[in-house]
């Protein structure tokens, strides 16, 4: 058992990660609506943050349960594991944010948890079914987002045959407000729950939840509030990358990208799959650009983003493992 002071400090650190997650992933929710000039940046972040928080009334706690019980065996979890996992995730989030790289906060957290769990208990402490589900999401989420966005582009083109370009633009400037809201709901519903799972499993490891793992309401409210505040703080380096460097977007294309991403996130939230919102919206944006013509996508930028996807899990895991062993060493002195 750890002291209440240390427990409070770890919960606060987890909420800091949640805040950074919102700031780092603000681009996921608002890049398209800003790049198409449907909303000014300050209004876009407020719009996205509001729906990030409202997601608590829409989705259950399936993703939180997966992160809390389905990545590392709950019996392995202790304060040192959580501390090391959060250090790995926060380090990678801050590093990629400073570099303007839209990496995955979700996979940084899971990589950190894996690194710390492996350092403590080896492979026996890993819940492989949860790992397979998460790794599958690395490939499935962007692919599904891209396919859905392509289908939506075709549907929009078919239903807009009788409209002038100005008429199409006017229609989808309004509809993009809806698609941005739906995407922000999915973003909050997936990403806030990952921190909910981390805090809840920490409380469970300290015997504060009894014999049954669950997510207390104060944890739910705190995590959704933290990610919403983080989104409100922005993340303009990554907004620029996501909103304009990959491909140029019109309001109709922004609607298709956000809606394709929102559907993908809703499926993942219901299935309890901790996917990356960054991967999802990137795949959707690439799909929209490719629907116009392959040369409309800046493939060099997209390829750099994909490289960041694959190194996030091991990079955060290595930092986490280093912090775990360093903490153990210091504690033994």
Helix-strand pattern, N to C? Answer: HHHHHHHHHHHHH
Main beta sheet strand tally, sense and closure:
none
Shape: elongated
Oligomer kind: single chain
Which band does the percent of strand residues land in? under 5%
Subcellular location: Membrane
Membrane topology: Multi-pass membrane protein
Transmembrane segments: 45-64, 76-95, 107-128, 135-158, 213-239, 301-326
InterPro entries: Phos_transporter
What is the secondary structure topology, with strand pairs?
Layout: H1 4-24, H2 26-35, H3 41-54, H4 62-69, H5 79-99, H6 105-121, H7 128-159, H8 165-205, H9 217-232, H10 236-245, H11 251-271, H12 277-292, H13 299-332
Subcellular location: Membrane
GO biological process, one term: phosphate ion transmembrane transport
Membrane topology: Multi-pass membrane protein
């Amino acid at each position: 058992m750890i002291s209440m002071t240390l427990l409070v400090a770890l919960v606060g650190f987890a909420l800091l990660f949640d805040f950074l997650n919102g700031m780092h992933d603000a681009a996921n929710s608002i890049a398209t609506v800003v790049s198409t000039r449907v909303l000014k940046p300050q209004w876009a972040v407020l719009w996205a943050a509001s729906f990030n928080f409202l997601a608590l009334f829409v989705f259950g706690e399936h993703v939180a349960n997966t992160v809390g019980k389905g990545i590392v065996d709950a019996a392995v979890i202790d304060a040192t594991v959580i501390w090391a996992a959060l250090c790995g995730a926060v380090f990678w989030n801050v590093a990629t944010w400073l570099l303007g790289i839209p990496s995955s906060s979700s996979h940084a957290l899971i990589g950190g948890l894996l690194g710390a769990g492996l350092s403590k208990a080896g492979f026996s402490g890993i819940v492989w079914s949860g790992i397979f589900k998460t790794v599958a999401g690395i490939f499935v989420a962007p692919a599904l987002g891209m396919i859905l966005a392509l289908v939506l582009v075709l549907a929009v083109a078919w239903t807009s045959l009788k409209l002038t370009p100005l008429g199409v633009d006017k229609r989808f400037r309004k509809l993009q407000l809806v698609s941005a809201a739906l995407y922000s709901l999915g973003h909050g519903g997936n990403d806030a729950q990952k921190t909910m799972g981390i805090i809840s499993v920490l409380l469970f490891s300290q015997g504060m939840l009894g014999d049954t793992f669950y997510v207390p309401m104060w944890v739910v409210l705190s995590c959704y509030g933290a990610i919403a505040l983080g989104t409100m703080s922005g993340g303009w380096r990554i907004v620029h990358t996501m909103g304009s460097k990959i491909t140029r977007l019109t309001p109709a294309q922004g609607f298709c990208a956000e809606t394709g991403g929102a559907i993908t996130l809703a499926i993942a939230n219901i299935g309890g799959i901790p996917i990356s919102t960054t991967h999802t919206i990137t795949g959707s944006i690439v799909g929209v650009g490719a629907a116009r013509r392959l040369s409309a996508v800046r493939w060099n930028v997209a390829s750099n983003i994909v490289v960041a996807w694959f190194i996030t899990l091991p990079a955060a895991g290595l930092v986490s493992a280093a912090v775990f062993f360093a903490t153990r060493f210091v504690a033994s002195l």
